């Protein structure tokens, strides 16, 4: 599969990108933070393991945390984070439907209640979509659970939004400030471009776009 940037999204490229994503070190040699990288969470999927889902949500939050200025009471085992972990686990365990918008709104409401912070839709999508990305990159995913990833959305950040712009679409500069309407328009459009290959494609797209954007900013 090729997009307009002419790089291939194949089993080989996705496996290679996944391996690099799971690397414990950043490009600068510094260790990545969080349970999937410090050895406290194995990259092994088990839909009955609530710790896996709590850690996936927490990793998603860590990836977005720089935008959560002034948030209080963050704890992966409590409040908004625990609720979200249970909702995602129920999606895999209890034959629940994929309901991204409800999860975003629930997370925003819970952050307001438990962490006294008014989260934005753009922030919520990043936490939720990254949680699914971490789960998707685990080993030992059974076929029934694998299918559950088909409706998943692409985590939107500066790199994936730059790719989206290069597909001839509108430019969005600040992912954390995306409104629900903007987010849904982009996600629906990405689905028309990539079909059900969204998470596999994102692993390659993000890796290709990151150095391009970093180099562009450094000029």
Task: Please describe what this structure looks like.
It contains nine helices and no strands. It has one domain (11-218). It has 219 residues and is an all-alpha fold. 34% of the residues are buried. It is 56% helix and 0% strand.
Looking at this protein, list some descriptive labels.
single chain, 219 residues, mainly alpha, 9 helices
What Rg do the Cα atoms give? Answer: 17 Å
Helix/sheet category: mainly alpha
Mean pLDDT across all residues, rounded? 94
Helix content: 55-70%
Distance between the termini: 32 Å
Total domains = 1
Q: What percent strand?
A: under 5%
Sequence-ordered SSE layout with sheet pairings:
Layout (H helix, E strand, L loop, with lengths): L10 H11 L28 H15 L14 H15 L6 H16 L5 H16 L6 H5 L10 H9 L13 H15 L3 H21 L1
Short characterization:
With 219 residues, this protein is mostly helical. The protein has 9 helices and no strands.
């Amino acid at each position: 599969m090729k997009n307009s940037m002419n790089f291939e999204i194949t089993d080989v490229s996705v496996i290679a990108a996944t391996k690099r994503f799971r690397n414990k070190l950043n490009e600068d040699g510094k260790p990545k933070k969080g349970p999937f990288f410090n050895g406290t969470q194995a990259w092994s999927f088990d839909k009955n393991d609530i710790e896996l889902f709590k850690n996936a949500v927490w990793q998603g939050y860590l990836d977005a945390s720089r935008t959560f200025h002034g948030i209080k009471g963050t704890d992966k085992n409590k409040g908004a984070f625990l609720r979200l972990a249970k909702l995602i686990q129920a999606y895999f365990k209890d034959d629940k439907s994929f309901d991204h918008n409800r999860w975003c709104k629930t997370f925003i409401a819970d952050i307001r209640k438990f962490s006294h912070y008014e989260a934005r839709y753009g922030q919520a999508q990043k936490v939720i979509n990254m949680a699914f990305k971490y789960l998707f990159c685990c080993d030992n995913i059974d076929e029934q659970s694998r299918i559950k990833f088909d409706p998943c959305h692409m985590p939107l950040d500066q790199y994936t939004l730059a790719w989206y712009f290069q597909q001839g679409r509108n430019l969005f500069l600040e992912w954390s400030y995306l409104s629900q309407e903007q987010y849904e328009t982009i996600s629906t459009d990405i689905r028309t471009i990539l079909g059900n290959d969204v998470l596999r494609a994102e692993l390659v797209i993000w890796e290709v776009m990151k150095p391009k954007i970093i180099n562009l900013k450094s000029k």
